[in-house]
Design goal:
single chain, 170 residues, elongated, mainly alpha
Length: 170
């Protein structure tokens, strides 16, 4: 890590204590999150394309709706396993101080995706409105993914500053 990168986070609390870093590296859920996150992102990209296609052309409603359900199921999987990971590392399932705001935004992401499912099942929104709700859910997901990518970067920089092998794999 360069001197400039080290200075980027002066006074910022470490994301992991040495003990938490060991627990993170020992948890099977770290690997699970590392696999699920890019899989969910790929599902998101396909679904986004299908939703936008429907909104622009009116074609492919069923494919778009199924893709949002698949994206939502992937989200539930990553949220459940992420909560278990957070418990393994920090001793609490949600809202650990190091990931408090990411968890807050994750709740919004979950709420919007769940609202999509509930509206689709209840038939309370028309197809266009459902797809707009899906786009709102996806916008919140992009913000949340950005938060986690930022934390990944911070963890790598902090780990490299500590000179640990584990930090380089954060």
């Amino acid at each position: 890590m360069s001197r400039r990168e080290t200075e980027r986070f002066p006074g910022a609390p470490a994301l992991y204590s040495p003990e938490e870093r060991l627990r993170r590296d020992a948890s099977v859920w770290t690997l699970v999150q590392g696999i699920l996150a890019p899989v969910q992102f790929l599902i998101f990209l396909v679904s986004l394309a299908l939703v936008v296609r429907f909104l622009l052309t009116g074609d492919g409603l069923e494919a778009a709706m199924i893709s949002v359900v698949v994206k939502t199921l992937a989200l539930y999987a990553i949220m459940i396993t992420g909560s278990i990971w957070e418990h393994d590392v920090y001793g609490q399932y949600l809202f650990a101080p190091a990931f408090f705001w990411e968890d807050v935004v994750s709740m919004l992401v979950l709420a919007l995706h769940t609202a999509y499912l509930a509206s689709a099942v209840a038939g309370s929104l028309g197809p266009r409105e459902l797809m707009i709700l899906a786009l709102a859910a996806y916008a919140s997901y992009v913000v949340n993914a950005g938060q986690f990518l930022w934390k990944l970067r911070v963890a790598r920089l902090q780990g490299a500053g500590a000179g640990t092998i584990a930090g380089a794999a954060a």
